[in-house]
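It would be a great kindness if you could assist me with a short task in structural biology. Thank you for your consideration; the sequence and its tokens are set out here.
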Amino acid sequence: MRKFLIFAGTREGRLLAEHLCQFGMEVHISVATEYGEEVLPQLSGLTVHRGRLSGTELEDLVGSRDWEGVIDATHPYALEISGNLKNACQKTGKPYLRLLREGLEDTGNSGQGDLIYVNSKEEAAAYLNRGKGNILFTTGSKELMDYVNLLSDPARMFVRILPDSDAVRQCRELGLSGRQIICMQGPYSAALNEAMLRQLDARYLVTKETGETGGFPQKLAGAKAAGAVTVVLRRPREEEGYDMDGLLEYLELPGIGRETVQKQEPEAECTPVLEFRPEAECTPALELRQKQEVRKGVVPKSRQTVTVVGIGMGSFLNLTLEGERACREADVIFGASRITEALREFGRPLQSLYQPEKIREYLEQHPECKRAVAAFSGDVGFYSGTRKLLEELEEEKYNVDLICGISSVQYVAAKLRMPWQDMKLLSLHGRRQNLIGTLRTHEKVFVLAGKAESIRELAGMLLEYGMEQVQLYVGSRLSYPEEEFAAGGPKEFLDFQKDGLSVAVAVNPRAAQTAVTHGLPDLCFRRGSAPMTKEEIRSISLSKLALTRDAQVFDIGAGTGSIGIECALQAAEGQVWAIEKKAEAVELLSQNKRGLGAYNLTVVSGTAPEALTGLPAPTHAFIGGSGGNLAEIVGVLLGKNPKVRIVINAIAMETVAEVMGLLKKQEFAVAEIVQVSVGKAREIGAYHMMMGQNPVYIFTLQKELP
């Protein structure tokens, strides 16, 4: 059996070993590192020696067997091992065969300054020291010590090395931080090289002239696309030996073929966050499903496919692999300008469109775009434009799929090391929601805030409604290099000035103390001389209203606002309008609103029914005072919403008579009458006497049941 010893530090060496084994040869391959052994194929007839060899050990290995050939397939820059191996073969009388890596033509330094050839590390460092900006080194880990010593500012360095523990340890011993070390297994596409240079904001890429199989053309193309200068360390010598075809011809074996030697290995082996794979190997689940459906006759093959992708916070690194695949395979990518700029790395056609109707119009005008991506920030299900886009894209015309992204909630919670399963989620970004009411009953509230002004308004709102105890955690420019988090009470954010969009987590330690039922004590309200529905009557009336979480309530003849404020606190996702004609009561209403945190209550100064004009349709209405206009008020309420639920409190017999007259003229599905008499104990000397309050009639009316 023919026996060969191969020293492999390159992909060509691994290919040669595999080729020899396929023809029944016995192959012993020597690699220096654990990682070098890891990437070798499992083949019959192949044995592996791992570890660096001294001169004596090398000579012993070369002389240990009757090798037909000792093949040097080490890296072109590995001068020491090649010299030692050649000497060992001369001493033991074994044939030394050098496998050369095919290089590219060295055209010298280009006139445009985007490609610089140097003859040594010293020359490279001298050139780099004259410029500014980050540097991506792709030269391996062995020469890094020299560059660390030669560069005036090693903090500019970012190094791409193999995922080998020894190499990582060496980098850390040289003082490189974790953020400067990128562990990956190549080869790398031009798109990946470009994306990495852009992500690192690197102005230079340093490489050896590694030839086709070392990904040299892809490095040059990626650097050029990213606007970076490529600094190339020339090969150290002119070598004698064989290329792959020449060596196999010398060994009287069939050739592997040029296309096999130069073929890029599947980049699915890459281990970083940024993962790129050959197009043929990365068909997403969406496309597979569509092909299956086409075969079954379910989906017309001619349909355009729209994949809605959540891209995360904005940084390219937040994108999931599934989202990255969809973007890389798209014929067009839609999104707001900030989003399309982040996705420029894929080199796909971009359209700064996010309005659903504009996206549909574009697709109709460009039927050649078979695979489109509509990209939204964050996750597709969290305050995203996805819902409206789905409504716009008819199921009969388009295949639509959704790919989730990292939401700002998840991202911020991870940064703050705070669980988010118990957070209440709100958005104040272009919408009005009841943060104050929500904080009364939820300890943690996540808020999509918007720009700096919205954070200042949020802080002012908390102070206005007496929530100084709330702790705010504010994150700005999430995922970008300028990302920043700040914490403090509301007063510390009144002058918040950060650029870009912000989010906040508000924590209220007193939320657990808030009652979950209605029934505030009368003493909670500022009263003056304005009338007020007493606590016990208020509780019964609120129960009769049967409020929903998002109720739209009219409190007519609001007085001090005791009914309206309790409605606002109970229906925190709804809205209350308190209508009152007396100036003193209107002022008391405003004070009680702020003091009791009824953010979703709006004070309306005026007389019903005229004051109801222009207000939206109510779902519920309470009438505590009608000024003799009861029939007109009920008529307006029913006109706005025939299903409105109305509760009326009456003390005067004239008001009772008005309601009874109304019941005779109109039919109601619900017409309930309750008469309530309340007595409360009062201390008189050593005794407690029950003091009776005015009897109150509580009417519940509803024309139509929901």
About this structure: The CA atoms of residues 339 and 552 lie 37 Å apart. The first helix runs from residue 11 to 22.
